[in-house]
Amino acid sequence: MVNLWTDLETGPDAPETIHAVVECLKGDRNKYEYDKDIPGMVLDRVLHSNVHYPHDYGFIPQCYYDDGDPFDVLVLVEDGTFPGCVIEVRPVALMGMDDDGEQDDKVIAVPVEDPRFDHIEDLEDIPQQERDEITEFFETYKNLEAGKEVETLGWEDKQAAHDAIEHAQELYEEQFG
Fold first, then answer.
1. Residue 149 to residue 146: CA distance in whole angstroms
2. Is position 31 annotated in a ligand binding site?
3. How far apart are the first and last CA of the chain?
4. Every domain of the chain and the residues it spans
5. Taking the CB of residue 145, how many other CB atoms lie within 10 A of it?
6. Cα Rg, the chain, nearest whole Å
7. How far is CA 173 from each of CA 62, 65, 73, 107, 170, rounded to the nearest angstrom?
8. Is 110:76 a contact under the CB 8 Å cutoff?
9. Dihedral, 111, 116, 121, 122 alpha carbons, nearest 10
10. What family is it from (predicted)?
11. Domain at 18-172, CATH from 1.10.10.10, 3.90.80.10, 3.90.76.10, 3.50.50.60
12. pTM above 0.70, yes or no
């Protein structure tokens, strides 16, 4: 069986084009996580707050981030896919986040094969309302979980996302190479 985190390459042309492995679905409250030891998707928890994922959410293969987890990616989609779906995406922005004192940034990406997102190339192409909704989700989704503190740290452009992906690839290589 293929391990989607360790066996799948980061992307065909990383950091310009990467793979996103979907864990959580747009419109859902279930927090699935990929368990690399199984390997497979497990239900980590149901979000305690009455919110839902604004878009498909998952991780980038062979990328390890400062929080000690695979690097997170939020894929702007019209319709949710399914847990374990691999999507070829273009990173377009980076949202900074602190989760319980750990740097837990999110790459924001668009599907390569969806023409509805062809016009989104960089941060300024994402409508402000969309950015506000994503920020609101990540600021509130853990509010009802005891002892959890999350702070969003603002938005950065495509180049920052590329730099963060390269950093995450280096951390992965150092840790698991």
1. 9
2. yes
3. 20
4. 18-172
5. 13
6. 15
7. 8, 11, 19, 19, 5
8. yes
9. -90
10. Belongs to the PPase family.
11. 3.90.80.10
12. yes
Structure-token match 């994402």, residue found: 126
Tokens, residue 150? 């999350």
Interval 5-46: pLDDT, tens: 999 999 999 999 999 999 999 999 999 999 988 899 999 999
Q: Is the four-CA dihedral 141, 39, 66, 121 of positive or negative sign?
A: negative
**Paired residues of 53 in beta bridges:** none
Mean pLDDT of the chain: 96
Report the C-alpha gap between 1 and 39 in whole angstroms: 8
Q: Which residues contact 149 (CB under 8 A, 6 or more apart)?
A: 99, 100, 101, 142
172 known member of a binding site: no
Measured CA to CA, the distance from residue 76 to residue 74 in angstroms comes to 6
57 is in an annotated binding site: yes
Closest CA to 109 of 166, 60, 169: 60
Asked whether 35 and 86 are in contact (CB, 8 A), the reply is: no
Query: Is there a binding annotation on residue 45?
Result: yes
Q: Where are the alpha helices (DSSP H) in 38-157?
A: 128-140
pLDDT tens digits, 80-91: 899 999 999 999
